[in-house]
Amino acid sequence: xxxxxxxDAEEAGLLAQIDAxxxxxxxxxxxxxxxxxxxxxRLPRAAGHRAGTRSxxxxxxxxxxxxxHALTLYAFSMENWKRPKPEREMLWKLLHQYLKKExxxxxxxxxxxxxxxxxxxxxxxxxxxxxxxxxxxxxNTGLLLTVALNYGARAELVDAFNAILDRxxxxxxxxxLRVDEEMIRANLYTQSLPDPDLLIRTSGELRVxxxxxxxxxxxxxxxxGTYWPDFNRKHLLQAIIDYQKxxxxxxxxxxxxxxx
Length: 260
Description:
260 residues; alpha/beta; 6-stranded parallel sheet; 13% strand
């Protein structure tokens, strides 16, 4: 693979530490800290959200060029409806502007776009923007970019269980059927995705905030105190380097432990 050209010596050093054969297949990111970034600069919250779109653009493009298979971004949780209406409307406007402006870049980088969450509850125009981006990038075969909008992991599980019940007999009855993990997995919003290998959270918060609770059971977690608008390709490389240093056991023994 042709690696992205580094911007400076520090980035070149980070790239040199990456093992191309051991990249995480699926990286999920909780993008946090836009409001605090703005407050530190005595700016309105909207400025933090706008600045955050630059990080979104950089991380998506760099992930595609690194050769990651999947990237999932937590953009709007179900709890975010509690925010003031003007802020919510500004977020929908930013999403519209982003998709309109960045679609050529997604196409150029062979990125396929999809969204997960209770999308039917989003404003009609937002649903139309999502549907258009999905359709226009459907033929791309590179990075699968998933944006979680109006998403909550507990709601996802509720929807999955209800979908299972509905498919049994149409009346919600189980008919003696026992649910197993594969049945649940097949009815999650993320049924087309492998589980995340690496979960990144910005802003230093040590919680997962109702994000992909089923899917991150064995994900490696990397937390940075950096606010999302300041997160860049170097931070992504640092997260991947740290991930590659870890020994993933999935509840079993490592080779070293087994030998002792």
